Structure formats: structure tokens, C-alpha cells
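Entry for magnesium ion complex. Fields follow.
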Amino acid sequence: FSGRKTIDRELFDELEEILITSDVGVAATRRLLNNLEERVERESIQELEILYKMLEEEIIGLLSIPAEPLDPNRADPFVIMVVGVNGVGKTTTIAKLANHWKTEGKKPLVVAGDTFRAAAIDQLAMWAERVGVPIIKQRPGADPSAVVYDALDAAVSRGYDLVIIDTAGRMHTKSNLMEELKKIRRVMAKKIPEAPHETFLVLDATTGQNAYSQVKTFKEEISISGLILTKLDGTAKGGVVIGICHEFGIPIRFIGVGEGIEDLRPFQPELFAKALLG
Amino acid sequence: GLTSRFEKIFKYLRGQGKLTESNIKEALREVRLALLEADVHYRVVRDFVKNIEERAIGQEVLSSLTPGQQVIKIVHEELIALLGGTPAKLQLDGPPPVPIMLVGLQGSGKTTTAAKLALMLKKERRSPCLVPADIYRPAAIDQLKVLGSQINVPVYPSQKDLKPEEIVRDAINFCKSNNCDTIIVDTAGRLHIDEPLMEELQRLKQILEPREILLVVDAMTGQDAVKVSETFHEALGITGVVLTKLDGDARGGAALSIRAVTGCPVKFVGIGEKLDAIEIFYPDRMSSRILG
Ligand SMILES: Nc1nc2c(ncn2[C@@H]2O[C@H](COP(=O)(O)OP(=O)(O)OP(=O)(O)O)[C@@H](O)[C@H]2O)c(=O)[nH]1
Ligand SMILES: Nc1nc2c(ncn2[C@@H]2O[C@H](COP(=O)(O)OP(=O)(O)OP(=O)(O)O)[C@@H](O)[C@H]2O)c(=O)[nH]1
Ligand SMILES: [Mg+2]
Ligand SMILES: [Mg+2]
């Protein structure tokens, strides 16, 4: 912290700038700093290191959502649906997830549920080949629900124990596209009543406050069980997730830290908080 | 939005008799809040509010019958001026084929925007060609080929075992022999902190000598917009910005941050996934959107 030695108004202004420029957002920043100020007063904190540690702990607390550990063994096949707005990293993340669970002994099947965007099916097919997992796909323009139904059928009959479904990117503000996702879920349930066992919303770490709107709408429309935060290998801090976790109580399961197959990490609040406060 | 927030403040203020400077500063705090919530960069907001403060606490507001509306008018005017006043055009002068290069972070919308620009130019009676220079992302070349065929625009037949430099060099000849007057090069998404990939862009620029280097930026980009645009601008000399995905509900404050810090004008906005979903950037519409 710029060689500052005392805990004063200027220090708190500096903390405000650090938090806001990390996309924590105004409301969440205010809450964090008000709580911090109260503690400093109440416990008469004088050392900077202790203040820093307190802020870190506060952030970690907000990010630590009490949730069941993610366990793909609790159903066979275990079905995961991946959703999110355009370009956030869904398809690439699915390749990483398939690879991750393949190395843990699962038999993943990926599903080309994006039948709309140019070369989306080819993109996932290339990834599937690289990872060494089977893919269910149809022609571009096919009904995504039909592809998904086929895939669940194949999973059951061919013994794939993990199914990861790619969907087309979509703006949460487009109700017809949100309806399409709901339809996919209804169709899934016809084949496997509990499916999808997990629905992951992918968020891009470079996104600012609009992430709130994305989470809120996707949650209301199709219910989200987990978040994945991508592109944390850039300079964006993804601070918006602090308020999101606090408000919606959805756990962040993984983070994306690059464009390669191995660039997936389980989300760890402590590391995230440390990186944010830099 | 800001209007309703101001109404609350100024209703309360009117009840206090004569309007004072500190009353106006309350309103300016609301402006600051609105801009930060719209993802405008922290420092850009600080400078912007400081710059309008003088006008805001002046006579035009203090002696106005509708001080709230007066402050909003000032904020709007200053935002529009900062965003560029009048729409900035695509520069297509020079001997054909006029080169345009698209750059930006991963997933921002470059490939789609390349095809949108090609369609737009085609409607303006130009004959563009598209060049896929992304050899890294799986099926990236296919993606641009599919889009090109949808709008009947020639696409250079890139192969992923070639270097982007070789592709661009050969594509210029391909373009000339196809009588294209504009060559639109789509590059791979990359991080501004990836030095080898930023150097690749500098080499492509040397070969292509683009008339326009457009930075494609996602409208939902937050505070990172400043670092990203500064770095790309420093490395290449950005001539314009395309702000994509404005059909969502992101406020788009990144537009203001980028313009304020780099001076680069937003030239186009992407407003959907279809290839006709591109528009000229209008500063007044953006100002209203940012203020919310
Ligand atoms: N640096 C970085 N790039 C990433 C990461 N995850 C994905 N990407 C890149 O982001 C771009 C978009 O990724 P996709 O997987 O196509 O994103 P998507 O959400 O499926 O996109 P749509 O299907 O078009 O909505 C690609 O260039 C990826 O390589 C990450 O963690 N870090
Ligand atoms: N809704 C909406 N989607 C857009 C817009 N522009 C692009 N997209 C979508 O955003 C996603 C990413 O677009 P791409 O063109 O693949 O992005 P890119 O920058 O080329 O990605 P990389 O090459 O991986 O860096 C795709 O799903 C596009 O259809 C837009 O203006 N609105
Ligand atoms: Mg995809
Ligand atoms: Mg691309």
C-alpha cells in the first residue's frame, strides 16, 4: 500500500480505489469498508498488516459459500449443463472439464448443444478429439433439445457416466433464448428426471457490474447451481463475484486461467482474495 | 436512473430554501455513483466529475428553476463531448485494397464483427475480402469461412499450419487478384499482457499497413477496459473501437473510459449476433445509456 504508515481517511480512499478498480462495485465496496472501519474502531487496530488481513478475511468470508462438494459420482450418468452470455468461455471450459474428469477416471461425453453459431459444433468436436472423449452432435440448425435428448440416450445405452452439455451463448435479456434453455431442461428431464444435476453459469472475469444482471436473470429463469469464472489469467480481478456470492449464495466451482486444456483450477477463496488485494 | 435519483435530491433541497454549492455536490456524488455502476473507470469518473463541478456549481444551476434538470443537462453535454461529439467514420482512403485489422481480447466479438463489417461495406457497394489470421482457436478459420459464405464475401483460404504473417502476406495478393478493394483481417484473441502475441500483432501491422486498426471490446467490460485499451493502443496505434454486445443490458461505461484515456473513438457498436447487427456509434445515445 504505497508506503502508507497510518490507518486514516486517505488509506480508506486508497482501499476504495483498489476494490472498485477490481470490479468489486460500489455497494459491495461500501459494505466491506464500513465493516472494516467498525472493526478498526472497535478493536483499536493500529497496524496496517492487521487491517489488510481483516479485509482479506472479510472477502474470503463472503466468497465461502456453504455448499455440497461437487461430486459427479452421485449420479450415473451425471449431467452438467453449461450456460452463459456470448464469448465468455463455455466451450473451452467444457473441454477443460471433460479433461479434468477423464483424468479422474470418469467417462465423459460432451454434447454439441450450440447448433446456432458458425462452426460451434466443429469447435467442440476438435476439442473432444484433443481431450479424447466422445461427442454427440448433429447438423447446424438442429433443435438443441433433440441433440441433448439423443445424448442422454447415448450416455445411458453406451455407459458414459458424465455428460457435459454445451449451449449457445445468449444474452440473458432475450426471453426467447432463455425459453430455449428451459425447453432443453424439460426435454432432459423426460429422459433423466434429475437432469441436469448441475447447471454452471460461466462468467468472464473482464465483466464489470453487468455480471449481477447475468446471474440474477439466469438464476431466475433456469436456476444455476454453480459459477465458473474464466480469463483470470488476464489483468481483470473479477471482484464482482464477491457481491454476487453474497447476494445469490451460488458457489464458484472453478476458474479458467488460460486457453489450454490444463488451464482450469478449483476455486479457492483465499487465493482469489490475495490476488485481488495484490 | 439518474433522473429519478436527482428528483429525490432536488425535492429535498428545494425544501431547504436557497440552493447552495454543497447541495450541488450531493448531486455530483450521485453522478459519480451512476458512472461507477455503469463500469466507467474509477479515475475517469474522478476526473469527469471534477471537470463538470465548475459548471455544475455555477449560476446556470444555482439560479435555475429546475436545478436537477440543469445538472443532468450539463452531465449529458459533457459526456457527449467526451465520447466524441459527432460520429467518427471508417477511414477507407488510400490505394486498394484498403486494409482493416481487428484486434482485442478473447471472445470480444472480432470474428463476428469482421463479417459484419464486410457485409456493411458490401451494402455500400464495396468489394471486401475476409482474412482469417487466427490459427490457434479450434475452428476459428472455419468460423470466418462459414460467415463469409453466408454473405457471399470471398474468404482467403487460410490453413492453420501457416503462420499468421504468411497468411496476411499471401492474402494481400489473393485480395488483389480477386479485385477486392478492402481487406479485413481477423486476428486471434489475446491478452494485452501476452508479449509474444502482442509482438505478433506488431509484425502483422508491418506487413499489412492497415488503414484502420479496430479494437473490438465487449460492452460488459469493467474497470479492465483502461489497461487493455492503453496497452493495445501503445503497441499498435488503435484508430477506432467497436463496442460489441450492446443488445444486452450492460451500461457500456467502458466506452467512456477508453475514449477518456486513449482518445480512441468508438466507431461502431455491435447490437446482436446476426451479421446485419452493427451500427454507427452515436455519442448521445451512449451518454443516455451510461447514465442509466
Ligand atoms: N485467456 C483466456 N482465454 C479464455 C479462457 N477461457 C476461454 N478463453 C478464450 O475465450 C474465447 C471464447 O471462448 P469460447 O469457449 O468460444 O466461449 P463461448 O462462451 O463458448 O462462446 P460462444 O459459444 O460464442 O458464446 C476463446 O478464444 C477461448 O480460447 C481463459 O480462462 N483464459
Ligand atoms: N449478442 C451479441 N453477440 C455477439 C455480438 N458480437 C459477437 N457476438 C457473439 O459473441 C461470441 C463471440 O464472438 P466471436 O466473434 O467468436 O469473438 P472473437 O473475438 O472472435 O473470439 P476469439 O477469436 O476467441 O477471441 C459469439 O457467440 C458471437 O455470436 C453482439 O454484438 N451481440
Ligand atoms: Mg461456445
Ligand atoms: Mg475470433
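NOTE: The CA atoms of residues 4 and 45 of chain B lie 20 Å apart.
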